[in-house]
Amino acid sequence: MSSDIAVRRTVAEVLDHVWENRSTIQSRDAYAMMLLALGRENPNLACVSADMNFEDHFALELPRQHVDLGIAEQNMIGVAAGMTVSARPVFANGMSPFAIARAYEQIKIDVAGADLPVKIVGTHAGLASGHYGPTHHSLEDIGVIRMLPNMTVVVPADAWQAAQATVAIAEDPGPVYLRLGRQATTALYEERTEFVLGRASVLREGGRVLFIATGPHPNLVAAQAARELAGRGVSAGHLNMHTVKPLDSEAVLHASANAEVVVTIEDHRALGGLGGAVCEVVAEAGGPPVRRIGVPDVHYDLVGGEEYLLHHAGINVDNAVAQALDVLA
Amino acid sequence: MLTQTPPQTVAEQLAVQIRRKVIEMSASPNGVHIGGSMSIADLLAVLYAEVLRDPAGVGSSHDRDHLILSKGQASAGLYAVLASTGVIPESELATYAEEDSRLGGHPMKRLPGVDFSTGALGHGLPLGLGVALAGRRFGHDKRAFVILGDGELQEGSNWEAAMAAAHHGVDNLIAIVDRNGWQISGRTDECMSLEPLAGKWAGFGWRVLTVDGHDHEQIRAALTGPVERGRPTVVIADTIKARGVPGLQDTKQSHSATLDERARRAALAVLEGGQA
């Protein structure tokens, strides 16, 4: 928990602060700072949590708006849905593997089916829990949530985008899953770009190859892979698909129209997540071949840190370049 | 009330109407959860006639009560009370489980008078806790009444909510357990023991009341008496599954059934005759 979170800042000041510190702040701290600023401005905003500590400042400063529900994610999601009778929006914080997988039925019926303004925020997503192992990895969350009607799925690419996304999902009237990691990651953006829910962010204009990535590490891999391909004389575009649902299919089709291969990259199963979503759109349009980079369809019990596990799963620059060139060859 | 003719109070009259409508809906070839609908008929009657403030949310005030039928399989009982209290048209009951009807086998939020879709067991108490907590924290005078099946209590999420409700001192949350003693596979206590049920709730920090779930006086006293400040209340209502339905009362077969015309006539005759 960073004491920096508690500093009294407005929404605009949080954006400035996170932008200035975008490569050292964890996304979840950027989120926590923004949530506190939003909670100060909107007395009807509620925050419930399942024994999380990164939001302690919210609980201390805005106790009326905060409820800790202990290590009980099913109850937390149901309570969040119930609270919408008087509070809007309701943010529900948990660790992604538990908030999503354990409470899936509550999310399906009480949140998504009911189309309520519950914002489920899951930290430690993907392989962010590293050596803590598969119990704490969350590799199916994007896939299972995107199958639910009404849900919006947002995966910020860095702390700056996490702060922006927090504002956007608070304003959005529907249910949302905001997927966050654990450690601070290198900033993706070099200028303060606009964030629009459901609108892909173009980091590099299209070419023979189109990388589509979601989340911090996958976007950093895509950016570097595109640069390496350019160095070899192969033009490559890069879309940051920060909103996996609703997928910006227009951007996918536009950017892939003249591409010879699309490569998707995510720190999630290669099955059913961003790669699956892109395949659905590209295949239906008769577009170019798609290669999906993600965690393979095996029980992933390798021990190691996040970066090691990502590399081992093929979520790395060499593999991204190789997958693209393999199709071009 | 079944044992009293003619019905005297509004609640007693409402109980008769609920039972009559459930019996009529049981003509549906798709099957009606008649047992669990009849066991809560008196609970619903007292709640809707005497306890709940604007349960259908037709008024403009956020200060109101919310009834959550967590045991959503008893939807026929709920539809019957919604029709009897003018929330939905009486004629609509004939569409139960028909194609394009609003009245499915489990209640859906798109029907007036239903705040939350239920039927997946173990969801209602967390929802009710959220309603009660939010009312208190966000300035609305709300109470949440959650009707739980006894078999439903085997779902662990109920106990997560029970623990949290007591921890947060949510005294505007009232759980009502329809203790009819049956679930799909048989006797509840043969499938999975619940006793000592009152002791379980008390151990979680709840104020526990036990009533005869067909005795309006007892139900009324439990639901209209003062709450205990800082503690949620559970009313364990001892009930009889399919009460008053010849051949089905207190049986496993009553869980979901279709009644042919003869069976419906027999059940209605019992209702009119007031013979339990």
TrEMBL record, chain A:
Keyword hit for Mitochondrion: no
Signal peptide: none
SMART domains: Transket_pyr
Keywords, comma-separated and alphabetical: Thiamine pyrophosphate
Transketolase-like pyrimidine-binding domain location: 25-188
Pfam families cross-referenced by the UniProt entry: Transket_pyr, Transketolase_C
CDD domains: TPP_PYR_DXS_TK_like
Recorded GO MF terms: magnesium ion binding
Cofactor: thiamine diphosphate
Record PANTHER family: PYRUVATE DEHYDROGENASE E1 COMPONENT, TRANSKETOLASE-LIKE PYRIMIDINE-BINDING DOMAIN-CONTAINING PROTEIN
Family membership: Belongs to the transketolase family.
Name of the molecule in the record: Transketolase
Organism listed in the record: Streptomyces filipinensis
Automatic annotation (TrEMBL), chain B:
Recorded superkingdom: Bacteria
Domain Transketolase N-terminal: residue ranges: 13-262
Named cofactor requirement(s): thiamine diphosphate
Keywords from the named record: Thiamine pyrophosphate
Transmembrane segments: none
Family matches, as InterPro entries: THDP-binding (IPR029061), Transketolase_N (IPR005474)
KW DNA-binding (keyword) present: no
Matches recorded under CDD domains: TPP_TK
UniProt keyword annotation of Hydrolase present: no
Protein name: Transketolase
Source organism: Streptomyces filipinensis
Gene that this sequence comes from: tkt
